[in-house]
Specification:
single chain, mainly alpha, Arc Repressor Mutant, subunit A, globular
Length: 152
């Protein structure tokens, strides 16, 4: 078989960084799913909870900015978390247009159950904390660079 040209090699699926990131995200989701099922959360809901465990009482807009999600995507997630009694949505008394999100006691208590997840992910990765930290740093830099190139 003839050797592929550089131009052809650049278009091979296995050589695509975007596919490596995409397929890795799917692998993460497969590892997270059974862990999050025990908490009664989907992965996007878990991300919302992480934001609120870090800083409670945020406006929907602030949560969306942290997660790179628009309100059309975020609102249904928040409604499901409210139905599950994990958060409370209220209108801001200072600005009626703003919806504030606060953890309920049940939502706050779920944080304790979630404490085992980082160790489980670390174990599943087969990496050291330093390796994952370095990879996370590199990915955040790449994300920020790509967002800047896209004008975001």
């Amino acid at each position: 078989m003839a050797k592929k040209s550089t131009a052809e090699a650049q278009l091979m699926l296995g050589n695509q960084l975007c596919f490596a990131v995409y397929s890795t995200a799917h692998a993460f989701n497969r590892v997270y799913k059974p862990l999050l099922d025990r908490l009664g959360l989907t992965y996007p809901q878990y991300l919302v909870m992480l934001v609120l465990w870090e800083r409670d009482g945020l406006a929907v807009k602030e949560i969306g900015e942290r997660l790179f999600l628009d309100s059309g995507t975020l609102t249904p997630l928040l409604k499901r978390l409210e139905v599950a009694h994990l958060i409370r949505r209220t209108r801001s008394s200072e600005d009626e247009r703003q919806v504030l999100i606060a953890l309920t006691a049940q939502g706050q208590a779920l944080k304790e159950k979630a404490r085992t997840l980082p160790a489980a992910i670390l174990s599943a990765s087969g990496c050291s904390i330093a390796e994952l930290s370095s990879l996370r740093k590199d990915l955040v830099e790449l994300r920020d660079q790509l967002n800047a190139a896209a004008g975001e």
